[in-house]
Write a structure and sequence with these properties.
This protein is an alpha/beta fold. 45% of the residues lie in helices and 15% in strands. It has a 7-stranded parallel β-sheet, with helices on both faces. It starts with 6 loop residues before the first strand and ends in a 9-residue tail after the last strand. Bound molecules: NADP nicotinamide-adenine-dinucleotide phosphate.
Amino acid sequence: MSHDKPVAIVTGASRGIGRGIALELAKTHTVIGTYRGRKDAAESLKAECGADIIQSDIGSAEDRNILIRYAQDVYGRLDLLVNNAGIAPRERKDILEATEEIYDEVLDTNLKGPYFLTQNAARFMLEQGHGRIVFVTSISSYTASTMRGEYCISKAGLSMAVQLWAARLAPHNIQVFEVRPGVIRTDMIEKVKDVYEEKAKNGLLPQGRLGDPVDVARPIRAIADGLLDYGTGTVLNADGGFHLRVL
Ligand SMILES: NC(=O)c1ccc[n+]([C@@H]2O[C@H](COP(=O)([O-])OP(=O)(O)OC[C@H]3O[C@@H](n4cnc5c(N)ncnc54)[C@H](OP(=O)(O)O)[C@@H]3O)[C@@H](O)[C@H]2O)c1
């Protein structure tokens, strides 16, 4: 039997941007939020907004299958998939020194994982006749950081994945979007936060401040509400104006 409320999966919902997205979506959706290792953080999300939480490693094909089957079996529907989970390289290293091991870890998590989770979700959405899919990419899709080349490559690939899935699913009432955050205050940037806070004030970000998870969650609210449905493939920047070219 199908559940009354729309259902959204948010990967990496235990902390940071994914948590902000889950809190926003929980106002209208039943949220299935995934985490990898931080069960404590996921439990606190559940306590805060009633999200259903599930341990699921985006890098594991088995976990991806189980996740989509879970939405199917427990709720009978999947209205929105938010591909948010992602990692920075464990060590920042100049591309002349960086290792294949870290490259594989970042690419498996940030690109292969969401690409194939989307394949699973899309097959189910095709059966149900509708759906929306969001990919959280990054300004690193088009900005070279030579101390974390694998991260930039993963996000550039993910931007192409958005175009591919948007084109493939457009005739089937399934809309696909890219949300491209700038520098957002989360655990991921903790070590470099002070440097970026300073840069943000000194002109790096035209809007003069770093972002918060809510700044990324709001555009996803608009997508979830169907306000962008005639614009499949659209890129939404959530970056304080970083993408502007200013002379
Ligand atoms: N923060 C930024 O400035 C920024 C800018 C642009 C784009 N982004 C992107 O936004 C997304 C979220 O970043 P964030 O800053 O919120 O990161 P974060 O604070 O480090 O949180 C990462 C989240 O992803 C989960 N996760 C990590 N690896 C996973 C895996 N293999 N399988 C499933 N879940 C996994 C974590 O789960 P646990 O809690 O269990 O570890 C956590 O919930 C990422 O894709 C990132 O690349 C971030």
